[in-house]
């Protein structure tokens, strides 16, 4: 079959700091062996590219990736356009967020989306294409249609196969992260064994945790042409031996890259030698999700971590020589003093500090337990940059404080002092025709802007999110929350 896979456009956050390749659909494309597959990534192409593909390629199936809740309206509208242009083609949607709101998305689409595939796509997408000619969708694992459900989604037996079909994404020089421009992405492990209350990474994979073999990880790395690589794992190098095994393979194959990764502070403290080894191999940057500065906040998020370990991790990273970006979650309940306190703390540490806004997402425990009522059901505002819970400060003032905090932090890193340091990097990129990083330096004020963020709450809402439970649930049933129910806990 002729298959077109589409990744929606970038959200606010990605306009500034990074733009990464759509690994999920690259892996699905590779799994669709025997089919003629094309990919359009709307982060780097405009809408006209879809129209061109519909006209010239005439796909018999069009699949949309819906990892981000904020992309729901765009994907629903695109699906409607595709169905109108090619009424007999199969239109399907899959990905992280849509797995938690599948029924609502089908309703919004009013028949334009034939099926939502919950869970991992590598096994279900090929099964769907096999089943489509007979319309036997109820046999496809993870399938949700207007008529009912298929069997539960299946976890991939081995992550080693298929490796992503990176050759199908065009304009690869548009993918970057900070100064790593251009940058590809890679996956070493999938899932997370922790269970933070605000996160759906663990509920999606049923708290399972799987890894590629070191050989497959090195093989995938060898296929990457870009000099920079972002490791997309939620928590990288949970087990030191896995990090060493991949490093051994890369050494054997003499692969040298620059790396960016994300991990937990306790993992960094526990496995410092493996991070130090990766530093020698080209690891320069890392994200650390501190989330809260105090014990109470960490408990509320069930981070299973302490402020002491967080600070120790920053020491370790400095000692190793890594540039660290920290994330802190702003509670909509913050007042002016709290913002001031966070600004002062952030200014006192050399790390890059990033602030996101606490957002209950379907699929997280907070979605079920949060007692405060949502102030909006507009999917587009669920991007951790907008307040969707009641703010203690008037909303515009909350954004003023948020933007002030973000711009103080950005000036620290992207401003004149920092620019002097980054000027050489910037010049090198421009000389090589890479302008993503340089454009990012000047775009900040137009993206992070209190009027813009406040104004975005006033837009008409065409598609409304499902409501959370009327009464907050005290102790949610975990089995009910999982998209993939691992074998050991299946009832
Ligand atoms: C890498 C990543 C990013 C990258 C985006 C890369 C990209 N272009 O897609 C960056 C860094 C830009 C990013 C940004 C954000 N992210 Co992010 N991100 C991730 C992360 C860590 C891994 C995703 C990944 O690449 N996995 C590897 C690939 C192979 O898996 P996958 O994409 O999930 O695809 C599989 C399935 O989802 C499914 N699938 C996917 N697409 C399709 C399509 C079809 C048709 C089918 C059938 C199946 C299918 O099959 C694939 C193969 O099994 C996830 C956490 C996680 N563990 O999933 C969070 C996650 C998806 N991000 C999240 C969030 C909140 C964000 C941000 C809004 C905020 C932030 N500060 O992180 C921003 C904004 C996003 C934007 N669009 O601009 C949340 C999603 C919340 C939500 N419900 O919307 C997650 C779940 C993290 C979390 N812990 O809560 N993110
Ligand atoms: S926030 Fe990080 S550590 Fe916590 S559950 Fe999500 S991925 Fe795991």
Descriptors:
single chain, 491 residues, alpha/beta, Rossmann fold, pyruvate-formate lyase- activating enzyme, 2 domains, seven-stranded mixed beta sheet, six-stranded parallel beta sheet, 17 strands, 40% helix, binds cobalamin, binds iron/sulfur cluster
Summary, kept brief:
With 491 residues, this protein is of the alpha/beta class.
Descriptive notes:
It comes from Acidiferrimicrobium australe. The protein is an alpha/beta fold. It has two domains: 2-149, Rossmann fold (3-Layer(aba) Sandwich), CATH 3.40.50; 175-458, tm_1862 like domain (pyruvate-formate lyase- activating enzyme), CATH 3.80.30.20. 40% of the residues lie in helices and 16% in strands. The chain contains 20 helices and 17 strands. The chain has a seven-stranded mixed β-sheet, with helices on both faces. Strand 4 (61-65), helix 4 (72-85) and strand 5 form a beta-alpha-beta unit. The longest helix is centred in the last third of the chain and has 20 residues, at 395-414. The chain is globular and about 60 Å long. Mean pLDDT is 91; it is low at 415-420. Residues 192, 194-196, 199, 201-202, 234-235, 264, 289 line the site of iron/sulfur cluster. Iron/sulfur cluster (SF4) binds next to helix 7.
């Amino acid at each position: 079959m002729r298959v077109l896979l589409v990744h929606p456009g970038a959200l606010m956050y990605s306009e500034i700091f990074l733009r990464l390749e759509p690994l999920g659909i690259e892996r699905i494309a590779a799994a669709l062996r025997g089919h003629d597959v094309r990919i359009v990534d709307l982060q780097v192409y405009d809408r006209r590219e879809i129209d061109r593909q519909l006209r010239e390629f005439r796909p018999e199936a069009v699949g949309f990736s819906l990892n981000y809740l904020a992309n729901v309206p765009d994907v629903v509208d695109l699906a409607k356009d595709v169905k109108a242009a090619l009424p007999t083609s199969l239109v399907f949607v899959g990905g992280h967020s849509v797995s938690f709101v599948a029924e609502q998305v089908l309703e919004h689409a009013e028949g334009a989306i034939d099926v939502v595939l919950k869970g991992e796509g590598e096994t279900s997408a090929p099964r769907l294409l096999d089943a489509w000619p007979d319309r036997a969708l109820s046999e496809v694992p993870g399938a949700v249609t207007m008529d009912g459900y298929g069997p539960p989604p299946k976890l991939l037996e081995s992550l080693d196969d298929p490796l992503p079909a990176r050759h199908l994404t065009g304009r690869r020089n548009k993918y970057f992260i900070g100064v790593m421009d251009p940058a590809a992405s890679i996956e070493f492990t999938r899932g997370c064994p922790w269970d933070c209350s605000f996160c759906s990474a663990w509920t999606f994979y049923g708290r399972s945790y799987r890894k590629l073999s070191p050989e497959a990880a090195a093989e995938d790395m060898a296929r990457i042409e870009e000099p920079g690589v972002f490791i997309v794992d939620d928590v990288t190098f949970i087990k030191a031996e896995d990090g060493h095994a991949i490093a051994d393979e890369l050494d054997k194959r003499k692969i040298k890259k620059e790396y960016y990764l994300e991990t937990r502070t306790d993992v960094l403290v526990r496995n410092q030698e493996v991070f130090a080894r990766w530093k020698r191999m080209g690891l320069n940057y890392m994200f650390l999700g501190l989330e809260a500065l105090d014990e109470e906040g960490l408990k509320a998020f069930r981070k299973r971590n302490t402020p002491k370990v967080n600070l120790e991790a920053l020491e370790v990273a400095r000692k190793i020589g890594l540039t660290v970006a920290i994330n802190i979650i702003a509670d909509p309940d913050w007042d002016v003093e709290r913002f001031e306190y966070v600004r002062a703390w952030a200014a006192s540490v050399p790390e890059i500090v990033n602030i996101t806004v606490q957002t209950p997402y379907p699929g997280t425990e907070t979605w079920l337990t949060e007692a405060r009522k949502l102030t909006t059901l507009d999917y587009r505002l669920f991007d951790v940059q907008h307040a969707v819970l009641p703010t203690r400060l008037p909303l515009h003032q909350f954004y003023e404080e948020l933007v002030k905090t973000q711009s103080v932090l950005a000036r620290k890193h992207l401003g004149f002092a920092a620019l002097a340091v980054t000027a050489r990097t910037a010049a090198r990129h421009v000389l090589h025709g890479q302008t993503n990083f340089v454009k990012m330096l000047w775009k900040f004020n137009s993206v992070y802007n209190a009027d813009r963020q406040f104004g975005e709450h006033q837009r008409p809402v065409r598609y409304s999110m499902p409501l959370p439970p009327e009464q907050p649930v005290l102790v949610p049933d975990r089995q009910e929350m999982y998209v993939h129910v691992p074998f050991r806990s299946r009832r």
